[in-house]
Design goal:
This protein has a four-stranded mixed sheet with strand order 2-1-4-3. It contains six helices and four strands. A hairpin with a 2-residue loop joins strand 1 and strand 2. It folds into two domains: 127 residues, Helix Hairpins (Orthogonal Bundle); 66 residues, no CATH class. The longest helix is centred in the middle third of the chain and has 83 residues. The relative contact order is 0.14. By secondary structure, the chain is mainly α. Helix content is 76%, strand content 5%. It binds zinc ion. Zinc ion binds next to loops.
């Protein structure tokens, strides 16, 4: 168990160092991520607007050619009316003509709506394109800044990652999960703390003397009953090789 406690303590030290490296990057990684999301959203928006514009103008052209052929029909009815032989034929042509004229009016209205829709989309496309250019510029700047910081921290980070892999090797999965859970719930990410003069090194509440004794023997995992952090005896926290019995 002492070996496990040592590994846990070592793991905590490594993770704290990794946290510090991450802190050096500030909120740059988050900023880059958010900008990437925005960029992807704008791209989708642009594609949708382009599709809307294309479809609106295509439908407008279709309505336009329908109007042209309806107008030709009306002209044809007019000339046919000059040649009818009775009122019945004349009235039938009038009805056809009225219906065609009504269709033309309806199509003209539709055409105007489609024209407006297409034009609005075209204006929006220009706006979104400008936004995309701006986003690309900002994103590039942030990426460069992040790369600069990462260049400084990458080597160190790699070392810690390797050390971390070695440290977790001897720790059982459920314990690792507990460690992670405590870590996530604590400000500063400290899940493992040393016993400091009989008190928890995390919340500084006193640990009962009987528990302090048990802890020194490192026979089991002991959690602070106040803050829930895992306690390790001071000989481990101070890096001493042999346990004081
Ligand atoms: Zn505590």
């Amino acid at each position: 168990m002492e070996d496990t406690l040592r590994r846990l303590y070592e793991l905590q030290k490594i993770d704290t160092n990794l946290d510090e490296l991450e802190e050096m990057k500030g909120d740059l990684p988050l900023q880059v991520k958010e900008l990437e999301d925005q960029y992807a959203q704008r791209k989708t928006e642009l594609a949708n607007l382009e599709a809307t514009m294309k479809q609106s103008f295509a439908e407008r052209d279709l309505a336009d050619s329908d109007i042209v052929s309806l107008r030709e029909k009306v002209e044809r009815y007019k000339s046919q009316q000059l040649e009818v032989r009775n009122n019945k034929e004349y009235d039938a042509l009038t009805r056809e003509m009225d219906s065609a004229v009504a269709s033309i009016a309806k199509l003209e209205k539709e055409m105007q709506d489609l024209e407006n829709k297409g034009t609005t989309a075209r204006t929006d496309i220009e706006t979104v394109k400008l936004q995309i250019v701006e986003l690309e510029k900002t994103l590039e700047e942030k990426r460069v800044a992040l790369a600069e910081v990462s260049k400084e921290t990458d080597a160190e980070e790699n070392e810690y990652r390797k050390a971390r892999t070695r440290a977790v090797e001897g720790i059982k999965r459920p314990l690792l999960e507990t460690y992670q859970r405590i870590r996530d719930s604590k400000r500063g990410g400290k899940a493992i703390v040393g016993l400091v003069r009989g008190a928890c090194g995390g919340c500084f509440n006193l640990v009962p003397p009987q528990k302090v004794l048990e802890l020194r023997q490192s026979k089991r995992i002991y959690m602070c009953e106040h803050c829930g952090r895992i306690l390790v005896p001071s000989q481990i926290a101070e890096g001493k090789e042999t346990a004081a019995q």
